Amino acid sequence: MRMALRRAGVAALVMAAVGLTGSAGVGPATPAPAGALPADTDSQTRAPRTSNDGKFLELSIQSTSPSTITTTSDPTVVVRGTVKNVGDRPVEDVGVRLQRAPAIDNAVDVRGALEFDQAIFDTVGEFDTVATSLDKGESRPFTLSLPLRSATELSLDITEPGVYPMLVNVNGTPEYGGAARLDDARFLLPVLGVPAASDAKTTSTSTSASTAVVPPDTSAPVGVTMIWPLADAPKLVGGIPGSINDPIRLIDDELATELSDGGRLDALVDAVESATKTENDADGRVSDSLCLAIDPDLLITVENMTRGYLVVDNAGIPAGATHEGRGRDAAGNWLQRVKTLAASMCTTSVPFAQADLAAVGTVAHPELTATAIERPADILDNILGVTSVRNFVWPDSGVLDSVTVDTLDAHPTTALVAASSVDTRAGDSSRAQLSSRITDTVSALAFDTGAAAALAATGSNPSTPSYIDKDTAPQLVSESRVARRQDALGALAWSALTPTALPRNQILAPPQLWSADADDATAVLSMLSTLIRSGLATPQSLPALLGRQPGATDTATLEYPERATEDGPQTSVIDTARTQLPRIDALESTLVDDPGLPLTPKRFTAPLREDLLRAMSSANRRDASATAVRNAERSASIRAANVTGTVDNLYRAVTVVSPGGVYTLASGQAPLLLVARNELPIAINVNLRVDAPPEMKISDIGPKQLPPRGSRQLTVPAEMNDSRKLVVNFSLTTTDGLQLGVPTSVTVRSNAYGRPLAALTATAGGLLLFLAGRRLWHRFRGQPDPADEGYEQR
Hints:
Elements: H1 2-17, E1 57-65, E2 76-85, E3 91-100, H2 109-112, E4 123-124, E5 128-134, E6 139-147, E7 162-174, E8 180-191, H3 205-211, E9 222-230, E10 248-250, H4 254-259, H5 264-276, H6 285-289, E11 290-294, H7 296-305, E12 309-312, E13 322-324, H8 328-342, E14 346-349, H9 357-363, H10 366-374, H11 376-384, E15 392-393, H12 402-408, E16 413-418, E17 422-424, E18 435-437, E19 442-447, H13 449-456, H14 481-497, E20 505-508, H15 518-533, E21 537-539, H16 542-546, E22 556-558, H17 562-566, H18 571-590, H19 601-615, H20 626-652, E23 654-657, E24 662-665, E25 672-678, E26 684-691, E27 696-698, E28 704-706, E29 710-716, E30 718-720, E31 726-733, E32 739-750, H21 755-781, H22 789-793
Helix pairs in contact: 5-8, 5-15, 7-8, 7-11, 9-18, 10-19, 13-14, 14-15, 18-19, 18-20, 19-20
């Protein structure tokens, strides 16, 4: 029924947009006060199209008060906003009114209610005139107010707690057209308790019961756990190897703003500090329900910023021109605050740089996998001085594929995933499970999908998670920031206000890169605190949840949506990782690990592997802004290209120096003298590869060590049996056989004779001995030698 109404509503909205119908708002007829606009018209006058996609007016909500209704709240709802003429002609008789739909009664409608047909919003207020005429480009503010309930006047008629979909409707008459509904704005209003009606004291005794305070049902409080993410898009410049004293380089200085007063990361920390300070959380119940989830890449970056840093002018040129960063002090202050918070509450890590775990599993490189999943906890512990939650993985996508499950299967692990991605084998939806077993060693904790999607929609850069179908996702760009915040508050409260909702444990998980500002963060934690203080929720710590192992029958399978693959890193980035990781490994294995030096081979090469993880980051890939998504992909491509270029340069930095000219051997077995140069800051073991012609024999000299940023002479035994000039090619390789540098050609000539000349010399020597012996023989016998006959006659 609800789905049919939504489809009907889409058709009605389309017809209204082109002016084929009047307003579709329905509800009990109410007399219009003097000067008020008439109710929605049934006129069939065609409203002409405009140049702005058929849209004439744009409605935006600026504030709602109260944002959450409690038994002590003001009994009147006040909504403020603006109406702007975005069409190509004036609009007359512009009026707005407030409407509400029945309280949400199922989890699906927590987000789906925002797409309801207007007919469902059947409790309506009166139209309030905004402007008799609104010119093109002109905007006007408005304020609407209605009591929650009243025995004497028009009201929202809210008589019991719940989460209520609200709608602000705007009507108008475009020039050359008829009156029509021209836009609307929707939001959720959480009502935790109904305050006494404003006219309760003036009503009769018979009606006092209908206007008295209505408290919430606290008989089945929900156990609530909130993950509080601290993360940012990767900021370190890609392609910079590790060093000891060199300052880090960032691609921009936006992090300085994020960490400073009023910045996003500052606001996220400030909200937790405020919500958990003694005067607001004396019993520590809010603190017990929270767990900081921190990106180790962010911590590494911020810690290095505290020592001073540089910002490159061009992210594509890692070693190019730079300027000083301005966030050193802000980084130090923020890091110290995080250390203080982490010491007093649950702290866990997210995968390094919010890397896409499906892509990491596809690359299937042990060191890369360990850096992404296993080492983040160690990084947090070392920097923050705490013991963070172990054997826990929260994929940024909120879903797991089979490859990642197989990767995690090596150790007992609990993964935090969207409830919508967990399919219980029992197929019984009434047996909603918070924790399920996926394999013998991998378990899944399910977070609230509706609440998580609503939280992802808040902030300056709203996003649609991978576990939400694009076809059913709300159009975030058309919703005002305040409306999106209200939707999140309603989503947080729904399970607590619905005692029949299962399971009675709720994990709240905003996106890891959450763009919430101070107002968003404060409102969310205020709702969490209110739910706990009112008895609607009880704190449930994450470590306690992890300690509850699912039973053997609580088994499930995971669904991996196609969207998750679409939201992942580009194929070219994955291909780069597959190509460059073996080269990085080979280089590291051939570098010399000197215990006396602080720069080790692992420390030197680790940033390059980390850069490949940063290139696989999920940050900003699900933003509602197409520009943000393109920028994320571009940054990943630049980072991957930087790694490739740097690895190429590192390999070229170790080479044989060409001697130039012709190399002359003093004898047939004289050695060749070559020079090998190492421009890397670490000593390296190399092998000499020789490509010589058959006439020349070169002996293997074995592995040789080259000093850091230095050179060494190599003595290469050679044997040459030819006096011709021969060309010999030399190159250096890693101990694994990968070529280093550029091959060098050496022209060699020997002063030694060849074999024919040696035979001729031997023959001549033998003939000489024969002749000399014959002469001596003849003289001994007193006979003249025939060779002397001519000489004697003279």
